Amino acid sequence: MTVTLPDVQQAHARIAAHIVRTACAPSRTLSAQLGCELYIKFENQQFTASFKERGALNSLLVNADAVRAGVVAMSAGNHAQALAYHGTRCGIPTTIVMPRTTPNAKVEATRLLGAEVILYGSEFDETLKHTEALATQHNLYLLHPFDADDVIAGQGTVALEMLEQVPDLEVLVVPVGGGGLISGVACVAKALKPDVEVVGVQMARFPGAYAAFHDKDVEARPASATVAEGIAVKAPGVITTQMMRQHVDDVVLVDEQDVEQAIFDLLEIEKTVAEGAGAAGLALLRRYPERFTGRKVGMVLCGGNIDMMILSSVLQRGMVRSSRLVRLQVEIPDTPGALAALTSLLGELESNIVDIQHQRAFGGSSVRATLVELVLQMRGEEQHSSVTEVLEHHGYEVKQVL
């Protein structure tokens, strides 16, 4: 059995009173930058900050008798929090098995929502096998995070809302991990509006769905980490693979830096927090803007559960990429007052010194010279170029350090 439009419509009627009907709002700034008319579906506004509530709740309600004794599931975080929240709300005991690499914020949030959390394994398949063993041993209902009809039908309600909110969308851009979201979305989109294009986006480091869709022999890099751990799935499911091949138009890969920049842009421009998976759609639009030029695009921002340490690193790296944090090496004479002269000049150029290191023993073209390494706060590339030019005009040798 695969999911159909009536399944999704029934799921929506079932869950609508218990989830947030999230906004699908236009982004004027991103639209102007990208050359398309962009509408963002803010699924990070759900109580647990991701679309996963839809599928988890639908499955709990459809299987009410079977789940009464308890459910077990594996998840990198969002499915876990969704199941913990709605399981606790419905009085159903929940056990969540998470990979040991799951960000601590997601682990603690899941525990706080009432689930028992077990950390096991380092990748999806290893964690899933342990979860299946627990279900058998303790007679618990195993609720798959993506490869189940009830879950897919719940996720498809995202598209029902989007096409009600913005009926004339021409393209839907959807993050892909195991394929539950895009399967449900594409099923609805093709049934309601056959000419709409559905494009999936996946991380280059975890290209399982891309490989399955394009029938390519591409494997995940076993030792790789990704900023988008929510879609770091080795392979899509049996049901989702079938549905993607039936309904999806394309699946495209993006790189880590693409997604990092998208997280940065969403926070700066839209004032919204996106996890890596949630920002993947924007990463695709930024990487291939010509593909969407002049079209009305709906992008699913599927979640906002990002670890604060990861977010901090992403923001710092974004500041570097946009030349708002710049690291320079400047050689100065090893004489009294030389460092003061340099810092005074930088002050006149309105460049704030964030960090400074003064090296006598290491580097320098002469024993009478010394290297100063500075981290400077800038307004952007224009000021960066201006500061470098003025320093060189004053006789300093300047080298940018990446």
Q: State the distance separating the first and last CA atoms.
A: 53 Å
* β-strand amount: 15-25%
Q: Rg to the nearest angstrom? A: 25 Å
| Total domains | 3
Structural class: alpha/beta
Query: Helix content range of the residues, please?
Result: 40-55%
Mean pLDDT: 93
What is the annotated CATH architecture of the largest domain? 3-Layer(aba) Sandwich
Let me know the number of strands: 14
What characterizes the major β-sheet? Answer: 6 strands, mixed
Strand order of the largest sheet: 1-2-10-7-8-9
- Specify the CATH class of the largest domain: Alpha Beta
| Tally of contiguous helical segments | 15
- In the CATH hierarchy, the third-tier topology of the largest domain is known as Rossmann fold
Task: Give helix and strand order, one letter per element, not per position.
Answer: HEHEHEHEHEHEHEHEHHEHHEHEHEEHE
Give me some keywords for this one.
Alpha-Beta Plaits, Rossmann fold, 44% helix, 402 residues, elongated, six-stranded mixed sheet, four-stranded parallel sheet, alpha/beta, 19% strand
Structure description:
This protein is α/β, with parallel strands linked by helices. Helix content is 44%, strand content 19%. The protein folds into 3 domains: 5-47 and 151-318, Rossmann fold, CATH 3.40.50; 52-142, 3-Layer(aba) Sandwich (Rossmann fold), CATH 3.40.50; 323-400, Alpha-Beta Plaits (2-Layer Sandwich), CATH 3.30.70.260. It contains 15 helices and 14 strands.
